[in-house]
Amino acid sequence: MAHLKTKTIRELNEKDLYDRLKQIRAELFKLRVESKKGTLRKESGKLKPLRKDIARMLTRVNELKKK
Question: What is the set of domains in the chain, with CATH numbers?
């Protein structure tokens, strides 16, 4: 999954944000398991951007809830 830009995140509605969050969290979990097993090679640079994407999405969800 590609890195999400803030503009893209702002265009999504709340339901789509939650769906995308679920997908990204599953991917992050899979990468963390591979990292702990020691089989993670090429995707080692994906962990930090995924965490940042999750933080951006949660920030947007909180913004939508405050409105």
Answer: 6-66 (1.10.287)
